[in-house]
């Protein structure tokens, strides 16, 4: 019965089968060739892509080296920090991601957008740091729900911390995130966006040693960037330890004395040139820079008229006032304008070039020789000495004693100060030098200005009878327990005769120990030599003084430069108190307390 | 009964079973990273499919052809019902739940449709305008309803009947040209209004995958990387990084061949292709008792071949991603059951010839 229903011709059926078979063979061969092409011929290419898919190279930040004091107490170290990273590759809905990132970081979405925009040129899988010091609760929240937030990664990294907060802030300096502009420069070649770099102080000076060597990790990740396993790892190497000459105990002691003042103190160990304490007040907490700083914080610090970010010891420029008389005395003696027999009568004032110049003691000091003139800081004596000398000669000795040029201490951004002479005046003011100006310069006024570190170097040179030390904060640098750099004390001999130094020192001794202007610095059992300086300031236009009361605003700056003991000196010191008033009343007694502390601690008192 | 066993196309049946077992092994691998249990479901579906196979195999061919139109209309009714229900409760898809088991009715349409088309084809020698329109309407009805589901893959596969009919029948050139233009217009219509944005994006990304690397071209690229990186012998079962670290999308369905390519390599791909080739090749060597049987076998085999080719071409980036699975291998119960039912009819037709 069936065959009746079959009408198709055998030829048609045969043809259909044949065409189908040919078609089948052709198609299957084609597919086989296509697979051969992908799997065998281009195997290498696709294998590389597959490996690229799952492997990621992650930079491991190196912990920064420590900064320690001479007793190896850490002044700047690292602590654990959780950072929130964003991986653009895994973002599904940018708006949602921004909302989440904003919630996690407590920053507004525009700020986050701006951060992401900075990384435009980086690959999509690059981890963009969104927030430092993430709160632990947020860390737990994100990590426990990682599947929901594939675009966020929590990194555990060291962050810079300063255990003593503001202590020695201006010595240590601070670090902050590197900028895009810096990355483009030669200095930025070892850094990546998000890295930190030393910005001031020791952190900047020894950046190459402190920064350490980055490590890297090759990890296997799935399509959600979740790490499946670590393929290989090069461990980061911590930066070298920078050992300073600083004596933390002394530093803290001085800073405690300085709570109400602004100004600077420097203490140097005369045997080595090593700085034992360097204080600049007011100061700041460097840690705020290692965290993320908001604009307000930055503005508050950078626009504070008291300049907490400025290291006044190195960068503050001041008129030296009577402290300059030391250099005048040395120059006068060395150039034989005066000798021990030279006397000048001080009646409180004297006329020079038709203008009346005053001594600070309006009643006059009577007859003064070089020693008593230093002891009493008699202006009239030094006016007369200045009149005999030429400004060029004064400038030469000022430079000889370290003024007008950087002290060479191992710190960045030192100021040069100014030693005026006729060529300088012609260059800057297009005017010749007037002899009357030399009279002012003779007592450290006029256009002359100095930094505290220069005066410290100067008084150190006097203390050592001309053996000028190279001031330094670095003692040594150690890497993995091995010393890689060590500072060797350096001294240069100043061409001034030792007996001239001896005469000046005699004067400085009497300043403190024989009823001189610095008698408030005297300590029983220690021969302190010093010189006060009370330098007028021009306060009219300086915004710095606007925060001060009217009477304090016009108070002079107080200097006290000193060293001890007189013979075989150990310490030299400079104390500057801005608007402190009479140096004998304020700077000198403060210096005495520092000597007391140091020599008592050393068992020498 | 003995004769049934003797003349039963055992090799084809064993090869089909082999494909399904390979499928289960690969579905296990595809679900391995997320510890999915799809492979167990697929095993259950395989048993259901075998049951379906033997039930349909036991039916008389006459009976099957007689009731084809009823089943066809019944399925159209269900599909229409689904569309209406979907409009009411927004978002209802092509899945129709029967208790705990999801049923994709669109997958089953191909069997009664092929039967009805075969019956219709017997009635004319040459494709005339009248018959052409009739055929088009028969195919277009379910396609229209399935597009509304929306299930682009299945409706696209059903389209394959039209060229097969044209190839089997003599056709006036004018009708051929008209049908081509019609196909083009339909394509444009579907492109502009019938496609969802994601479907359109898939096709755009197919044109230029590297430009849409992280978004819409992602699937094609990841699939090519998986296959290409497998090399001659593969990375080893459960060891493919593309599959196991989930770079490969739709691993257990559309891109199951990419899992084979990556983990088991070119050798296994060649073996798989060979199995398919043998199955297809054996289907064209048969005898039959009525013309409608002949047409059915060509139509249904043509559809499987078409689906197979598109799936493979998609995996190696020669065709856009349309959600078309690999017959007998990919995960999907309804699809598996419908293919086994279709094969049951074919194998029964082959036996009948020997029995009489």
What does this structure look like?
The complex is a heterodimer of chains A (about 600) and B (about 350). Chain A has 23 helices and 23 strands. Chain A has about 600 residues and is an alpha+beta fold. Chain A has 2 domains: about 180 residues, Penicillin-binding protein 2a (Domain 2) (Alpha-Beta Complex); about 325 residues, Beta-lactamase (3-Layer(aba) Sandwich), CATH 3.40.710.10. In chain A, helix 14 packs across helix 17, helix 15 packs across helix 21 and helix 16 packs across helix 19. About 0% of the residues of chain B have low confidence. The longest helix of chain B is centred in the N-terminal third of the chain and has 28 residues. Chain B is about 70% helix and about 5% strand. Chain B has one domain. Chain B has 16 helices and 4 strands.
DSSP strand tally of chain B: 4
**CATH evolutionary superfamily of the largest domain in chain A:** DD-peptidase/beta-lactamase superfamily
Written as H for each helix and E for each strand, in order along the chain, the element string of chain B is: HHHHEEHEHHHEHHHHHHHH
Shape of chain A: elongated
In short:
The complex is a heterodimer of chains A (605) and B (356). Chain A is built from 23 helices and 23 strands.
Descriptive labels:
heterodimer; A: alpha+beta; Penicillin-binding protein 2a (Domain 2); Beta-lactamase; seven-stranded mixed beta sheet; five-stranded antiparallel beta sheet; 23 strands; elongated; B: about 350 residues; mainly alpha; two-stranded parallel sheet; 4 strands; about 70% helix; globular
